[in-house]
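Hi there, hope your week has been kind to you so far. Thanks so much in advance, here it is.
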Amino acid sequence: MNMLFISDIHGSATALDQALAWKQRLDSNVLVLLGDLLNHGPRNPIPDGYDPQAVASTLSTLADQIIAVRGNCDSEVDQMLCGFPLLAEYNWLLLEGRRLCLTHGHRLGPDNLPPLAPGEGIAFGHTHIPMAEWRQDRLHFNPGSVTLPRNGQPASFGHFDGERLRVMDMAGNTLASASWKRE
């Protein structure tokens, strides 16, 4: 399975287009959206290329490839614009018989893990800070933010090639990486 992970688009059509160019380059057949898709949120500046309707339209063309979860800035109004379900608080992927919990990170996250067995993991956004590492035998994966990166990090997205989860910047540099098989 080849998956692209995007979090915290915050309505930027420009940032989404850049990330989706990587979906095509990496030949990803699944798009995992970890929340905060359309709205920039009251604490954030209005991002470059802010066009929530264009973001909803673009993502809706990929509806049959999307697994999405709700972010703290996502609402029922956003759901009305999108042709795929986006209001689940969390979801699960089953990879090689082990679970990866998908969530935004504002409720479940590294400080409030769902029940995970050793060797399983959590993929989350919310902090806008890239991460791919094993902690106490659980994988913690955050693709960062395509729109509003924090802590001096570049805009980034995540990729799973069937073996490794990587966080990459828009130039294709790997910022963080972890094997799905415990290292």
